[in-house]
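User: I'm putting together notes for a lab meeting next week and I want to include a structural view of one of the chains we've been expressing. I don't have a solved structure, so I'd like a prediction I can at least talk through. The sequence is below, exactly as it appears in our construct file.
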Amino acid sequence: MRKTALASLLALLLSGCMIGPDYFRPTVDTPPAWRVSDQAARDLANTAWWEQFNDPVLNDLVATALRENKDLMIASARIEEFAGQYGITRSQLFPQLGAGYNVAKQKSTIPGTTVKGTYNTYDALLSASWEIDLWGKIRRQSEAARAQIVASEEGKQGVILSLVGNVATAYINLRDLDRQLEISTSTAEARGASYKIFQDRFEGGVISLLELSQNKSQYEEALATIPSLEKSIAQQENSLSLLLGRNPGPIARGKSIDQLNLPTIPEGLPSSLLERRPDIRQAEQQLIAANALIGAAKASYFPSISLTGLFGVASGSLSNLFNASSRIWQYAGAVNLPIFTGGSLAGQLLVAEAQQQQALFSYQKTIQNAFGEVNDSLIDQDRTRVQLAAQGRQVEALVQYAETARLRYDNGYTSFLEVLDAERSLFNAQLQYTQTQQTQLQAMVNLYKAMGGGWVAEAEKMSAPPAAGK
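Assistant: Thanks for the context. Below is the predicted structure for the 470-residue chain, given as structure tokens.
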């Protein structure tokens, strides 16, 4: 009967109630649809979208970054840290056992007497302690610690999402700068050849100094753009190298910006963003952790119950240490009830509730930001596509304009100012067209980053080190 009663008591204690609010996902005001929809959108949120650019070099760069990027390594180590913290917190749910063996030699003297002595003591002890989580304080703390592990895992996926997007963006920017440098170099070469001809014509008295100066100005304009672009290319290579986990250095090239395929627009409703975005999932786990800590703070108002026990042997001589007469034991139970803490417990509860409110508002803000990023990216790619088409037609018109102006000048029908205007307009339009190409490709990268999806999990598999022997 005593055994049954003891077992029932332990079961009651272990299944004690948990103080504090249970977590329920807050109601979220979700837009019914995106501001811009595309009929050609496809379910591509779970695929390696960067492969749609059809550039093997870009694929290799992404794979390298997933293996070597230092921010990603830090995020992985942070998961291990929170896993360790969870283990520490959860361990308090179980009895704590310990053992020890002590040997001491001591000399004692009683003042005013002739009693003096030197003696040895030996003891071997097995101790146990257990705080019974009657009110759920430790379980709430464990719930918070478990949520922090999941939050750190979502944080790592957020790093992966940003990393892949940043590598693709940096590569696109690099190929854009390369193309601008090609345009500037070829334009400078053509204008240099023209300037040489104009010098010969000026020396022959065919043209005036005004026309020669105009031609030289045009030539120097193209030359002036080259050093700036070369500087930007080197800096972009350095930035991309750091994303790859390398020291700054040159970057391999693949397809030109004109050859990169434009990825297909991914589909998805606003409500699905709550499960697809790592930062939203991370913010929710942080809210869960903060909510659980309210319960832990409230449980501190209630009595804490702990059991302790000790069993061992102690003797003044090593030979008698394990005799039956040397055995010692003790068991005890303690109940601690806070009566007056000077506002400490109230302060702890206030802190926990304020932190929960901060986490709630942060969760709501994260969702709103996500909706805004997706809408911005959809609008960006939609309007940039229209802009690029118009600029393409403009470049074609300016090519014809420049050819006609040069022909009219050579035949004496117009001044060189018309040629100067036509060629300068063409040069600027070509640079702007390339920059808009970069903007359109960038908009698609931003859209995939904003939409999130299962591709992050696929990328995470690529970041894992290869198994031994493989």
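A couple of points you could mention at the meeting. Residues 202 and 208 are 6 Å apart (CA to CA). The first helix runs from residue 2 to 14.

User: Perfect, that's what I needed.
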